Amino acid sequence: MTKSxxxxxxxxxxxxxxxHDEDSQKLADAIIAYAVDRIRLDPxxxxxxxxxxxxxxxxxxxxxxxxxxxxxxLEIFTQQLAPSCISVDHPLFLSFVPGAPTESSVLFDLVxxxxxxxxxxxxxxAGAVYAENQALQWLVSLAxxxxxxxxxxxxxxxxxxxxxxxxxxxxxRQRARGAMDSRRPIIIASGGAHSSVGLAANAMDAELLHAPxxxxxRLTASAVRSTFMALNDVDRARVCAVVATxxxxxxxxxDDLSGIGDFAREHQVWxxxxxxxxxxxxxxxxxxxxxxxxxxxxxxxxxxxxxLFGPYDCCALIYRDVRIGKAAHTQKAEYLDVLIQDSxxxxxxxxxxxxxxxxxxxxxxxxxxxxxxxxxxxxxYEEAMEITLQVTRDAADMVRNSSHLQLVVEPSLxxxxxxxxxxxxxxxxxxxxxxxxxxxxxVVPTTHNGETVLRMCLVNxxxxxxxxxxxxxxxxx
Length: 477
Ligand SMILES: Cc1ncc(COP(=O)(O)O)c(C=O)c1O
Known about the structure:
By secondary structure, this protein is of the alpha/beta class. It is 40% helix and 12% strand. A 7-stranded mixed sheet has the order 1-7-6-5-4-2-3, sandwiched between helices.
């Protein structure tokens, strides 16, 4: 290493933050050891959040003028901060949408961090973008989309839905040749759509119309059609997108993708499918038929950090025609002119992921998912998916065979919604708190049609039927 000329400080003056020395080697060994131990834990401790006052007392102030030193900071994380975070990969973390990253994806995330690739442009990150695109193309092929399809990995379903709907609005305004430039777009979705669709509508100053769902909680083509037909001609022209969900977050149902897709084509309305949770199951033969119609989408999202066994944070955003994503999102600036940004240039000559969503700088966050997919192969993904689906079916049978529980809806994918006969809302909360306190499970209540119930979302192939039986048995008292 060449020494910096005075007056710049270097390691001999005690400046060490950017130099490798014995201490950083010790830190590297400790971090690798911790990471390996953490992913080996089966199950990991469930853990639980501590109140702020407890963290303040036990951890105190960590930012000091002189620094704590790496080993001390690492000790604080491993001994005090990490145990105050619930382990989403615990097999009985069934709240919200858990995560269950493969060992290979987590280990490779360390490599992604160490490489610190700029994943926004081909110029800077060609190798990473090439690999990410292969992982995206696997999803494109599962959905049955044409060769024009492509996309980008963004931080999560919320970011994916927003970027997709911005592209929808771009297309709608283009088609109207200026007639809609000062009009508010309308987006049609069901009340079962994820809250991020409403957030996207808000951010875009779009009007969100909720079409009613059927008895099973599905959005049907006829509900979309009657919502559309109830509008006057002026407002019909404002409808820029219809959003269907393939695996609603609360109850896991799949909307009528085929009928809604037909409607969208007929009326030249952008068809977006939010498959953040459920579209992962496209790779499972036993449920593939539930997704018929998905091949009609204009855009689709699916989150590898949910049910495709990748670490946070990662959402695959896919456009049927990736050039529309590029036209809608490309940022123009003098200092970016060097990146080929002309939207008429073929994308394979200028694939800049930054151009395909509401972002610029981006971590190559699709790489851990790519690495795991490249390592294990797509058949392993299909097998892991089928395992989760089968455990869900077995668990649903346990509920059917019990005297104290009822299924609130028939599970479509891997979400089970359960009623405990005789329980009031406070009983659900008490049971949920006790399970977390005892380190056994993290299952929080939800409401469905105004009723408090329990919702369990399974994405972890290490969740087994015996654990599910234990959970159901614990609800007897
Ligand atoms: C169907 C659906 N869409 C969107 C989201 C939002 O995803 P994220 O939390 O990654 O932003 C979720 C989250 O659970 C979801 O289930």
